[in-house]
Amino acid sequence: MAETLPTLKKLERRKQDMILTYDDETTYTVTYDDLRHACPCAKCSPLRNEDDSARSLRRQIESLPAEKPTVRTIGKYALAFEWQQGCSSGIYRFERIYDLANRRDPDRGKPYVHGAW
Amino acid sequence: MAMLTLFRVPETGGWVEVGMIRGPIMADSPVSINLPVASNAAPAGPSAQEQKQMEQAYAQMKRKMAMEEIGRKIKHKIMVLSGKGGVGKSTVSTGLALSLAQQGFTVGILDIDITGPNVPKMMGLDGRRLHVENGRIHPAQGHLGVKVISMAFLLEDEDTPVVWRGPIKLGAIQQFIGDVEWGELDYLVIDFPPGTSDEPLTVAQSLPDIDGMVIVTTPQQVALLDSRKSITFSESLKVPVLGVVENMSGFTVNGTAAPGTEVSIAAPGGKTLTTTADDGGKFSVTLDIFKEGGGKETAQEFGVPFLGALPFDPGFVRGGDDGVHRIVSEPEGASAVAFAKVVEAIQEQLSDGADGGLEII
Ligand SMILES: Nc1ncnc2c1ncn2[C@@H]1O[C@H](COP(=O)(O)OP(=O)(O)O)[C@@H](O)[C@H]1O
Ligand SMILES: [Mg+2]
User: Fold this and answer.
1) Chain pair A-B, CB pairs under 8 angstroms
2) Which of B126, B135, B173, B217 is the most buried (most CB within 10 A)?
3) Residue to test with chain A: of B215, B348, B360, most A Cβ within 10 A
4) What's the complex ipTM?
């Protein structure tokens, strides 16, 4: 890991997106649609392997009513988002959230292989 | 023989060719035929297939309710996983269960390793079979009152592993989880088979509120690599990683000397370790044999907690063979102490409200 990950200090939930503030004083906005599209769970992840299914996942997420999620920390390494509707199954490692903040593919171009071990 | 050429299909108003009617049709006998045409008329009652589906849905619902009940009665559920077999996952599962039981908690252990269920052996329950009462499965009681359910209880003969096909296997696991009468438990430790992924997925989806998974690794590079994959995998199951345990991390030497004697031992790396023989004249020292710390590095790299290291202790192998777990035979020994530390680290994670100073608004 070449890049050292700054520590997330503040997460402000707004209607459609969240504002993230890191300890290096950088601030980012991540939309809930982007966040939900990047869900790392075993059901959503494989859908991003193909363009078609990725698009339909996106459409499905965009058609959900706007809502603010409940946010929970998982140990000291990740966050979980709870939604009234749609998938709440993924655990988002802080790196993943930082990738999203920086508009980088959080899957790093790697296709999801179920149970790759 | 009637000469029919076309038939009118009432529901659709379409026409069907006679060629579809099989067998002779007598002129003035009633004709009953099954037309291969989709009908949109309402059926008179549920078909056999629908009946079956309803029954399945009902069974599914009952199972789900049973799971939720289990979820309520069991305070903490901990999955124990490893990417590789033979790293000591079952040793750690049973060790954690016993260590918790030593502290006075009510503990259960669920062994779903179908390929090599060895938990019963380690818990002194070799050769047990399933105990079913009123349609509920009752766990066997192992050392220190730990309740044990193992896939081994289903096997006719320990030496012939059952080859379960995927769906049957997963169905069996679900059934198992739903049908076991655990009663109230403080902790349920679940021992998984290595190297697969369907079982954890099934369990994670069936059992509500799993606290997290403990990943067992050894200091060797290959095991570490696999443990990294398990950490990533956990995120796709929404099961938090409670932490990484490094097993076989050093070698424990046990000996005897006059009570109170100070003993010094030459350890690898030119180190000298000293200890004092206890009142019974026993002493034990742990030496580093493999390169230590790989588990810790992996944990740090992924930002997950490191739960501690367990020494290489030949007593585990003996215990696995004669059915007396190390923690039971030597409750004050170095291994028992190491397990107690791991348990403490896990409990710290479970109570962890620590958010690392993140403000969520
Ligand atoms: N810390 C340890 N010290 C010595 N032997 C160990 C230790 N942990 C496990 N073993 C031995 O290694 C073998 C494999 O352990 P086991 O718990 O069955 O692994 P797994 O469940 O991962 O396949 C067993 O013979 C066990 O007694
Ligand atoms: Mg095992």
Assistant:
1) 87
2) B217
3) B360
4) 0.75
- CB neighbours (10 Å) of residue B23? 5
Residue among B83, B240, B242 minimizing CB distance to A91: B240
CB contact under 8 A, A45 and B198: no
- Whether residue B11 is found in the same domain as residue B104: no
Comparing A2 with B250, the larger pLDDT belongs to B250
Crossing angle between the packed helical segments B221-236 and B294-302, to the nearest 10 degrees: 30
Six token digits for residue B138 = 């009752």
Inside any domain, residue A75: yes
CA B341, B344, B346: angle at the middle one, nearest 5? 115
**Range(s) of the domain holding residue A35:** 8-101
- Using the atom order of ligand 1, give the atom closest to the CA of residue B320: 27
Q: Which residues line ligand 1 (CB under 6 A)?
A: B 82, 85-91, 118, 194, 247-248, 310, 312-314, 316-317, 320
Q: What is the tens place of the pLDDT at every residue in B91-146?
A: 999 999 999 998 888 999 999 877 777 888 888 888 777 788 887 888 999 888 99
Residue B172 vs residues A42, B112, B200: alpha-carbon distances, Å: 21, 10, 13
Distance of alpha carbon B148 from alpha carbon B185, whole angstroms: 12
Q: Which residues pair with B274 in a beta bridge?
A: B264
Q: Which residue in the set B230, B237, B304 is minimally distant from A117, CB to CB?
A: B230
Range of the domain at B10: 1-33
Tell me the C-alpha to C-alpha distance, in Å, between residue B318 and each of A9, B128, B145, B313, B321. Answer: 50, 20, 21, 9, 5
Beta-carbon contacts of A89 under 8 Å, excluding residues fewer than 6 positions away, are A39, A41, A42, A43, A44, B236, B237, B238
Say how far apart CA B148 and CA B286 lie, in whole Å. 31
Residues B99 and B234 both lie in one domain: yes
- Ligand that lies nearest to the alpha carbon of residue B151, given by its number in the listed order: 2
Q: Do A11 and B356 touch (CB under 8 A)?
A: no
Q: Do B224 and B276 belong together in one domain?
A: no
Cα–Cα distance between A73 and A77 in angstroms, integer?
8
- Chain B residues lying within 8 Å of A90, measured CB to CB: 235-236, 238
Query: Which residues of A fall within a CB distance of 8 Å from B195?
Result: 117
pTM for the full predicted model? 0.68
Total domains in the fold of chain B? 3
Q: B308 with B180, same domain?
A: yes
Contact A91 B361 (CB under 8 A): no
DSSP, collapsed to helix, strand or coil, labels residue B64 as: helix
